[in-house]
Request: fold
Amino acid sequence: MQKTVAGAKALGLGVLLWSCGEATDPEVLPDAILLPDLVPITVEAPELVSPERQLNIRFTYKNQGEATAPASGIHRVLLSSDRQESLDDAVVGTADAQALGPGATASAEVSYGIPGEFTEGAYFVIVVLDATRLVEESIEDNNAASATTGTAIQRGPDLAVDHFAIRSGIGTWYGNRGFYVAVDFMVSNNGTAPAPDGYWYDAYLSQDTILSADDIGYSGGCCSPVGQMIVGNESYFYDHNSIEPGTYWGILRVMPEDTVSTPELDPSDNVRRAIVTIPSLN
Reply:
């Protein structure tokens, strides 16, 4: 006659078998099944992108479970009007799942060409891991996360300095002898919306290529038309103690006049640099 210790099997414990009142060797039952658990770590998306441009998204994720997650199914990237995954969200890309051991992390990138007719507005990028639910996980409701900042889908200008030349020399202005600096430049708009009020610009002399507070500003203006060559007037320096003769970086910066109603898509190409030599007056 044999009997089992009550509840032992349900708890996954070893079971002692008794025969004629004497204990035999214990029979050890299998341990509980170990499962993976995929969770997003970061979701990176731009704050502004225009229709007819690429939306580039990068995300990282981790397997915080106790078993390897197989390379099954896909991860899905959504554009949502809120931070909640729903059926009316737009699917903007997918990434194949990778095999991921316990504690391991992985990353993926998705690029989506936004159609010209895409509705402009404020959106959130959401990443859903194992969107096809092919991976059995210990926790199934922690697979989605959104970017920390929203993404505005909006047309806008994108200024670029196509031409920049800087020159210096010595001359006389209103009877005063001094050296001058002048710039010629042209700016184009490579964006998806006009810059209706033109752009403003400022020009500096710098000891390096970094625009900083101690650089010397010598020219500037506003409301210049896009696509027209600007031939700069000569800007004279009479306080020769403020700048020594030598080689400098000339730095030109441009910006749309109105950045509130029409934010610029990519300000990274708004600065151009060129070397100029300041002559000695002696």
User: Anything to note?
Assistant: Residues 1-24 have pLDDT under 50 and may be disordered. The CA atoms of residues 157 and 264 lie 5 Å apart.
